[in-house]
Specification:
about 375 residues; alpha/beta; eight-stranded parallel beta sheet; 12 helices
């Protein structure tokens, strides 16, 4: 526990920090410095979830190095990567060390990660230790929420999570290898058609409290990188009619982030709505081929409008996100006729060569970059 306290103490300035987001000018200065962020949501193909990615027994720097090399070859300069509070509880020093290893590999490939602290999606009962094998032909059959029901069903315990946020942020608060921090992924997601029957009945009330707290905790650390939480549903153009979650996410974020798995028209509407907040914009999730969310032309739209872009999925693997969301309610017995997410096979060959050519054209990837597929 001593090491935890030292890390936390190192991350907080003695004086109280403002609870307000960065001034707009500071956010735009950051944007000018990092440039157009383009990449993917990344987990190595050998991991089923965040715990398997980061735990000591299954951490796989060889695969991470190889697959981030593929990302560099596509011209990607960022990767959105999920963390988990249980990793801090299990072994805070070891977890920070593995994050450092990851950052060294990412930096070698000129990739600045976006780290995600909390996530309301999929299994509400995460467990440390060896993770189960994927359920055949099922999208994200092992992904886990952070925090799980042990906190969501006991909101009086939420403040216990502060040490995780402050510990990680305090350790990396001035690390220029990190692009930004995503504090909470889809906090109001109730996982309809997958784990909805296992969710706490008061989940939304509790996650709203936690969302507000995590912004406050982050402000206490005052990292040099921006913090954000992305909106994913609702109407965002008019600040006066925002829902409670969107009020926090849009009005507290230093940089605006959002998700959209729709067609080009829907993407353009989202971007136009979010321009009202006068801050840099990053789409941290998109690309679902059967839904009409495809790299061509959506990645080009993001580039033209100077909106950062991280598609979901990269190398097909244990998350099985080549299968669609409806694989939870519809039986699949083989590879789907059209991959839902992901870009590459495990050996680095493209799912669609034409698609990869388009990505590299938009990113202006060098032929010599990384280990291009």
């Amino acid at each position: 526990m001593t090491s935890v306290l030292l890390v936390c103490a190192a991350g907080i300035k003695a004086s109280a920090q403002s609870n307000e987001p960065w001034p707009e000018a500071k956010a735009w200065e950051w944007h000018q410095k990092v440039g157009w962020l383009v990449g993917c949501n990344f987990i190595p193909s050998t991991a089923i979830n965040q715990l398997e990615m980061w735990q000591a027994d299954s951490f796989d720097p060889t695969t991470i190095d190889r697959e981030l090399g593929y990302a560099e070859g596509l011209g990607f300069n960022t990767a959105r990567v999920f963390l988990h509070n249980l990793l801090w509880t299990q072994d805070s020093a070891g977890f920070l060390d593995r994050m450092e290893q990851f950052l060294k590999i990412a930096d070698k490939h000129h990739i600045k990660p976006i780290f995600v602290f909390f996530d309301s999606c999929w299994d509400p009962n995460p467990k440390l230790g060896k993770q189960h094998e994927p359920k055949p032909f099922t999208h994200n059959s092992g992904w886990v929420q952070s925090p799980g029901r042990e906190y969501i069903s006991h909101p009086e315990r939420l403040d216990e999570l502060k040490v995780y946020i402050v510990g990680v942020l305090g350790h990396f608060k001035d690390d220029q290898r990190i692009a930004m921090w995503d504090l909470f992924n889809e906090p109001d997601n109730l996982n309809n058609n997958s784990y909805d029957k296992n969710e706490d009945p008061n989940k939304k009330q509790t996650t709203l409290v936690l969302l507000r707290k995590v912004f406050q905790w982050a402000r206490e650390v005052n990292p040099s990188q921006p913090v954000s939480s992305g909106v994913w549903q609702g109407r965002w153009a008019n600040k006066a009619v925002l829902e409670d979650f969107e009020k926090v996410q849009l009005l507290q974020s230093d940089v605006i982030t959002f998700h959209n798995y729709g067609k080009p028209r829907e993407v353009n509407v989202c971007i136009a709505s979010l321009r009202n907040y006068h801050r840099p914009i990053v789409c941290t999730e998109y690309m679902a081929r059967p839904a009409g969310s495809t790299f061509d032309p959506i990645l080009g739209i993001f580039k033209k409008q100077d909106v950062g872009a991280c598609n979901w999925g990269f190398v097909s693997g244990k998350t099985q996100t080549i299968f669609p969301w409806d694989s939870w309610t519809k039986a699949y017995t083989d590879e789907p006729p059209l991959w839902f997410h992901d870009i590459l096979h495990p050996d680095g060959t493209p799912y669609k060569s034409q698609e990869v050519d388009y990505i590299r054209k938009i990113t202006q990837a060098s032929e010599a970059a990384g280990k291009a597929p």
